[in-house]
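Continuing the series of single-chain predictions for the mutant panel. This is the parent chain; the variants come on the following pages.
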Amino acid sequence: MNLTETQPVGDRRRWFALAIVMTAAFMDLVDVTIVNVAIPSIKRAEGATFSQVQWITAGYALAFAAGLITGGRLGDIHGRKRIFLIGMGGFTLASALCGFAVNPEMLVASRVLQGAMAALMVPQVLSIVHATFPAHERGKVFGLFGAIVGLGAVSGPLLGALLTQWNLFGLEWRPIFLINLPVGIAGLILGSRFITESKAPRALRLDLVGVALVTLGLLMVIYPLTRGEELGWPVWGYVSMACAVLVLVVLVAYERRKSARDGSPLIELSLFRVKSFAAGIAVQTVFGIVLGVFFLVWTLYMQIGLGWSALRAGLTGVPFSIAVSAAAGMSVQLLVPRFGRKVLQAGALVMAAGVLLYIWESDRYGMGITSWQMALPLVVMGAGMGLIVAPLTDAVLSEVPREHSGSASGLINTVQQMGNALGLGLVSVIFFGVIDDRLTPAEVGPAYADGFQCALSWVAAVLGLIFLLMFALPKRPAQHVEGAGPDEATAPVAEKEPELVS
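Parent structure:
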């Protein structure tokens, strides 16, 4: 059932609704990348420790990962529009708390709240699109969504650099969060008017025990990784990470019972019997680790190691962002329909080649490296990443039964964010772990350059693992199989058919 069958409001209203939810998705994307550029400024201005710096980014990612499946389920139960507006309102409030944080501890807590609110807001985007647009229009809509992703990747670092560099009203880094306030308020007003309510076609229950187990398991891994280096790797950290495996076992057993009892588990375990989905979940997790490690280490290398300004660091990243956006568009529109899985595998190898080239240039030019010398490896890396990010979700979902596609979409987003949080935690091991705590000012630059090269070596190795994991993905996503009907060829596998509420 689509919107035009239930509410004859014409196309204009539907496209207003699309613009509102896409703006929310854009806010989330920008908020992740914009903070990375400002991290060194926050560290200097607020005296944040390395652990707090990691938690400013990892806290958001962890709360986002832990809440995504729950947020999607709450939308199914209570209405996608209602939960979307609650999430957007909470995200706007949390942004204000971040902007007016009086110390690093308050900033970390506000970022965790911001991630939790994003977990309510973001899962509703695909669901609202699915409820609002008929199948034959969704291909065009999701093409626009890909463009928004590319725009977020381009504008986030540059916007963060400009806002930090301008030091508006003497607020230093704070405008990177306060800029969300007018956008969020406008989204709340317009969303309440133009978005149509929808729910799942059958009644579901929220799996609170599953939510608690997922959150506990993530914390038992991420917290020791993030604090371990600072605390000298205490025994309790290793015990915590080992016990996280037991929590996972309990979660699986409980979800199996929950599914048999009332059909409302947090995680649909039968999905993991689909080979391509299980492999895709592994790829998404490991790729999230790569992104979590690279972006934080890259920012610290440029701004603290090389002593560059936030603006120069942001401008240096523009070729990378443009390459991601351009390659993403080409992969979906031209390459994947023709070459299938090979495009994603080529992306992993191209990205690894760019990482190795970056390591070589950093070692060769040392502290004298320039932005234009970084352009080539960044373009190569960006092109490889673009070949992966756009078609990966379709490849993972292509063999998933349609009745479980909503759960599958939530799991994909969750594990990617979980991988991102894990990567941010690993920074303390593979970056800060090779940097001495007591450095003279003259030693900081070379030490950060060495840490950068060490971290990128790990990134290149993990990309090789991703290449191998991709052999388990289907050769061609089902949407691109010749002879598919119009609905199968154009409709993204994103959500169960919703029930619209007038």
